[in-house]
């Protein structure tokens, strides 16, 4: 059974007060693969208590990724949408790839790690040369402040369209990845199944890319 | 004497555990002006202890603003640089406008509040219609990880060029604002006086705008 | 009665073979106001024969401008749409501001001139500091090649959202300017009345701006 | 001996007055590969006389491409610069990839065709999903109007950073492609050897990408 929270508390041994320099020997791979014994948590991971306190005190930095398949001229042929069990476990929700940027993790590492988390290690995301996002979505914990709502937190999501060059193998809480053409009824249906503003981000991505 | 830290701890009475709904009656002006008796702290402000813990656990969301003067066709005529006393109080540092995005504060509010904080209430910043930043700067607490270094924290700064249409009246820790033409020795000197990567952001802004 | 073509041939005396240096004394105002006696044509204007030949041989450079009204925080409150008599004079068409970039005219001048042409001299467009367009629309003379169709020509339109700070006084072939809120039935109706892809550009602008 | 002009006149048989519909059966490959017997000219090519008249009457649409090599996380490792014989044949000039967008050619096709023209058919350019350029350079035939000068014409160049995934085999008037790291003396030397504003475009690209 998949774990329902987007951030699984580890055993809580992350020492938030580590001295400067502790990240000197951390490589990008440590964020992307996790580290320690087997597939542990990456550096910067937080225990549940710390995470929840942070979520009520400061905006959380996120990446929101619309995965796409492209042709030889770079045109988007398909958009990937993720099927997940919703947070309360009762229903199936549709979304895109979304995840927190960890302490001392770069945006590029966060993109690679979150793609690997949802689509597997062989997805081969093509990360852009410039990290200027196509948009910035502001999720508030109060319904109605903006289109973007997240009951857990105030988050600021940098939004990217990321081509996937490899094979997808849905992971963790992701049940399946479905690819739809970027126009027509299928993508409209997919957007309609997304909640809390994620569909708006897909619509923005569709408007931004060159169809 | 100006206060030297970019975030002044208030009396610590901010209740991080406030229930949802507490921001229902907060207006943009409350962030920009502060609220309560006179010019108190805006909602979302943190006491020093909470702030320092957050700074060691999660990336902090920032705006970094390059203020400019423009002509009738939108061309940049001057770039504003700020003279400040450095954090340890010993020397004068040059920088641009930079500040944290507070809990439940929108990016627009953070831009308006931070411009008002440094340039005064009559600066009349012209905030863009789209919040797509011209760049995203990642400051790490470990020197050498990137060009951007901040010993206090890992921060992710959304970078904007903001025209100033009104009058500037330097505030708080800002001693003076100096306007230089966007080309030539003056702007190069100003950039050379900026530390920890802020000069690189000005250089990016200069390359991005249309001179 | 309004003239129906977007480019009115003058008396054809433009000398396409003028030697280099002829634009040395041309100021931006000459493009924006026209020049010569009264309101003549700006430099770079072409007679009908030259214009038509160019239109069959090379892509024409255009600006496409979505005019907006904004609030103090830069948020879009209204979108302006133009009512025009269609090219064949029979029906009323709805569109945004669109016009050719003339020989030796800068993009900024083209934006200012085309806004003045449709909305009058007191519109006070706020031209951005960076000319990076939010999108590039490619109009082809062959239906079906892209969403953007222009039977007259292949054109490449740089698309901008431009706030209008002043008063509008519709000019030339523009019968009226109507302002609608950027969400809801009114803007959807306006988009539905636009032909040949201009509605898609408005939809892209709506997705790109921060609502 | 390489041909020195960026557009080689063919035998002049392009019929500028072809009726609409003539491009119905043209595929992207016809622009990229040329068509007809062997490696002829692509559709939309112009004879010298037509080209020169157009160049004095309307702005010409161009793409300007900074080729880069990237690592697995999308970071730029090297920037490609082209060595060419200058237009008058006397000296060696350094530049990036630049070329005209042809009549009825899409921007994507123009990018692919111009990369293939300079770097060969196996370069495998990775064209972005969105054609929003990082900048727009305006070249004027009058020196001093802007940083960008082109004695042949007024051109409007859409500027892109394009990763090259394949092998380079310099073609036509390109003598060699040299790859330099994006920082330090080598790239500064390369920029210093570029004339008429092309170095400024490389500098903009360097500022825009995430180093």
UniProtKB/TrEMBL annotation, chains A, B, C, D:
SUPFAM superfamilies: Nudix
Chain residue ranges for the region called Disordered: 1-21
Coiled coil spans: none
InterPro entries: DUF4916, NUDIX_hydrolase-like_dom_sf
Protein name: DUF4916 domain-containing protein
Originating organism: Bifidobacterium choloepi
């Amino acid at each position: 059974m998949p774990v329902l929270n987007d951030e699984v508390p580890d055993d809580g041994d992350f020492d938030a007060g580590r001295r400067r320099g502790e990240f000197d020997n951390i490589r990008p791979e440590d964020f992307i693969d996790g580290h320690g014994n087997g597939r542990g948590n990456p550096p910067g991971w937080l225990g549940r208590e710390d995470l929840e306190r942070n979520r009520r005190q400061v905006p959380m930095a996120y990446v929101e990724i619309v995965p796409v398949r492209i042709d030889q001229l770079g045109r988007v042929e398909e958009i990937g949408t993720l099927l997940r069990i919703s947070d309360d476990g009762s229903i199936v929700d549709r979304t895109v790839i979304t995840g927190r940027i960890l302490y001392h993790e770069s945006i590029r590492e966060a993109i690679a790690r979150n793609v690997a988390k949802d689509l597997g290690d062989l997805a081969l995301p093509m990360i852009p040369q410039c990290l200027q996002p196509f948009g910035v979505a502001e999720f508030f914990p109060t319904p109605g402040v903006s289109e973007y709502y997240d009951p857990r937190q105030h988050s600021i999501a940098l939004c990217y369209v990321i081509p996937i060059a490899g094979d997808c193998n849905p992971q963790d809480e992701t049940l399946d990845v479905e690819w739809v053409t970027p126009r027509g009824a299928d993508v409209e249906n997919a957007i309609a199944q997304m909640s809390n503003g994620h569909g708006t981000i897909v619509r923005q991505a569709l408007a931004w890319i060159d169809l």
